Amino acid sequence: MDSGSYTTGVERNALEASIDAARSALLNYRRDDGHWVFELEADCTIPAEYVLLRHYLGEPVDAELEAKIAVYLRRIQGAHGGWPLVHDGDFDMSASVKGYFALKMIGDSIDAPHMVRAREAIRSRGGAIHSNVFTRFLLTLYGVTTWRAVPVLPVEIMLLPSWSPFTLTKISYWARTTMVPLLVLCALKPRAKNPKGVDIDELFLQDPKTIGMPVKAPHQNWALFKLFGSIDAVLRVIEPVMPKSIRKRAIDKALAFIEERLNGEDGMGAIFPPMANAVMMYEALGYPEDYPPRASQRRGIDLLLVDRGDEAYCQPCVSPVWDTALASHAVLEADGHEGAKSVRPALDWLLPRQVLDLKGDWAVKAPNVRPGGWAFQYNNAHYPDLDDTAVVVMALDRARKDQPNPAYDAAIARAREWIEGMQSDDGGWGAFDINNTEYYLNNIPFSDHGAMLDPPTEDVTARCVSMLAQLGETMDSSPALARALGYLRDTQLAEGSWYGRWGMNYIYGTWSVLCALNAAGVPHADPMIRKAVAWLESVQNRDGGWGEDAVSYRLDYRGYESAPSTASQTAWALLALMAAGEVDHPAVARGIEYLKSTQTEKGLWDEQRYTATGFPRVFYLRYHGYSKFFPLWALARYRNLQATNSKVVGVGM
After folding, report:
1. Catalytic residue positions?
2. Domain coordinates in residue numbering, the chain
3. What is the pLDDT of residues 390-409, one digit of tens each?
């Protein structure tokens, strides 16, 4: 298909048929109240931790559910014998240890072929001693290892003044909510009930009780790591003799922090790790199962389960606001002037979920900013995020152009006020916090994952620029937008791409930024845009699609890492190129043909690969909705631009 073939009736009809099928399929997933929510799948660690949590608490065995989770865990075991972080990914030690532990807890024989392969894979790589800190805490709570194997986390951290080098306000929302209940667990040092008495000593090459602190992680600075290691050694001496009155005050403060943020059945932080830690904390404090805060967290964890009949797994969280906003954009694109009517139920579902009356943790560094954002999940009022908010605003703004609505106007104004107030000093935006840039904290022993912080990133910054520009701001009228464009210009990489923090990776980042630059009026002839276009063209796969592997997040930066084409990554590349004015580029024609040729009879796309990111190098995500709305969005955008004379994308994304 060449760039001019769209003009033929046959090609137009084929494209329309593809769009209609994808649109119908997407609308079929919409819930009765107007919103979308798709499965959100991570690696084996969350379902494994779910199983281990039940046995930690000594809950009655649900043999049917455990059998289904076991089927899932066995299915995603890698050819290398262990468990990867992504589909067909490399061996990961911590995931493999948890996957093996969960299956053994469920009742799989250690002599079963898949267990033998897993054990050999773990031992051949030095054994479970090489697990990360989070896994070590789990093993310590189970008594497999001792408290010498994990960093000291004194609950007295709760009492530190704001000027202290380490306070809760200096770390990210996910680290904050995960760590506070863990601080209480570290103070009480409880032991799993583990009624079956299962251990995994066979995964170690040494007596696990002799294991000491983890070694320096690759991202950590030697000098800072040694400094923090020395502090840990001092705390290890002081912590056991801490005055009981101070400890009680710290635990009480931790409990107050948690109970203010429990969020009902949506859970502490609305993500699995803090919810699980909170349940274990209440158990350690002696609260019964029916104590309302404990019970709500435990019910919330079960709400994360996905039961497919023959197998089951536990999600890390749910993504209804994100899914609904993005799906709305796809339908708006597909339905043109009728789009506002089509997505009205979805946008009306989103509207009351705007957080207007609660100042969350973000307000510590932005006390004079009024709340106005949306959270990612059904309810998570303490932790709205900039990315969701910008995407929701752009959908509301698109809809109100065809169907004016005063309620949309008010919501957009408050959200814009909040986003402008959350811009960091360097001109960028982070996901949940402002100026969360205390980078030295990634060198503490607890931070071997390197994900303690939520600093500004290119993709979130681009989304905020897109929103401001779509609302009519320009570089001349908006100092915030001008500063953000300077940030984006400074962060372009040598080959022309931009880093993608929340999507995989350089394709996602480059899509985000090119949409923003176009919306902000940066000329398509600007060298920054030309370089990005040339880069996207250079990484197109031979089949016409685009794909990128999680390995591209490696610390020793080597840029984009090729992977088989996926529908979602292909759609991002196409939307990026079209935003840059390249609707007639041969690469776009090939990409459109790839999407059409790989569409299933149901109007959808099969996508097993993970294309989203929780924490680079540590935790990845497979949004099951991405392959349903992004390809539709790209196909409809292509059709719409081909039908106009200007061929310029007139919206923020």
Report:
1. 387
2. 12-40+317-644, 43-314
3. 999 999 999 999 999 999 99
Q: Report helix angle 173-188 to 272-284, nearest 10.
A: 20
**Spatial distance between the Cα atoms of 37 and 332, rounded to a whole number of angstroms:** 18
pLDDT in tens, 357-373: 999 999 999 999 999 99
**How many CB atoms within 10 Å of residue 80?**
17
Cα within 13 Å of Cα(444), Cβ side: 21
Angle (deg, nearest 10), helices 567-579 and 586-598: 150
Amino acid at 447: S
Whether 403 contacts 476, CB under 8 Å: no
Strand-pairing partners, residue 429, are: 457
| Residue 612 φ/ψ, nearest 5 degrees | -135, 165
User: How does pLDDT run across 127-170, given as a tens digit for each residue?
Assistant: 999 999 999 999 999 999 999 999 999 999 999 998 998 899 99
- The CATH class given to the 12-40+317-644 domain equals mainly alpha
State the pLDDT at residue 450. 78
- Asked whether 194 and 56 are in contact (CB, 8 A), the reply is yes
- Chosen CATH of 43-314 out of 1.20.1070.10, 3.90.1310.10, 1.50.10.20, 1.10.760.10: 1.50.10.20
Could you tell me whether strands 40-41 and 305-307 are parallel, antiparallel, or unpaired per DSSP bridges? unpaired
Using CA atoms, how far apart are residues 92 and 101, in angstroms rounded to an integer? 14
Nearest CA-CA partner of 313 in 574, 586, 50: 50
Please report the DSSP string for 234-251 in residue order: HHHHHGGG--HHHHHHHH
Instruction: Please tell me the distance from the alpha carbon of residue 603 to that of residue 113, in angstroms, as a whole number.
Output: 39
Judge if 12-40+317-644 and 43-314 fold alike in CATH terms: yes
Which residue do the tokens 């004194």 mark?
A: 154
Q: Is the pLDDT of residue 2 over 70?
A: no
CA of 67: how far to CAs of 58, 62, 83, 475, in Å?
A: 18, 9, 18, 58
Q: How far apart are CA 570 and CA 627, in angstroms?
A: 10
* Residues contacting residue 293 through CB under 8 Å, at least 6 positions apart: 258, 259, 262, 278, 282, 287
CA–CA separation, 373 vs 381, rounded Å? 9
Amino acid letter, residue 379: N
What span, in angstroms and rounded, lies between the C-alpha atoms of 542 and 538? 11
> How would you write 546-603 as a 3-class SS string?
EEECHHHHCCCCCCCCEEEEEHHHHHHHHHHHHHCCCCCCHHHHHHHHHHHHHCCCCC
The one-letter code for the residue type at 307 is: D
| DSSP code string of 495-521 | TS----SSBSSHHHHHHHHHHHHHHTT
Q: Tokens for 180?
A: 């506070």
Residues 574, 536: Cα–Cα separation, whole Å: 9
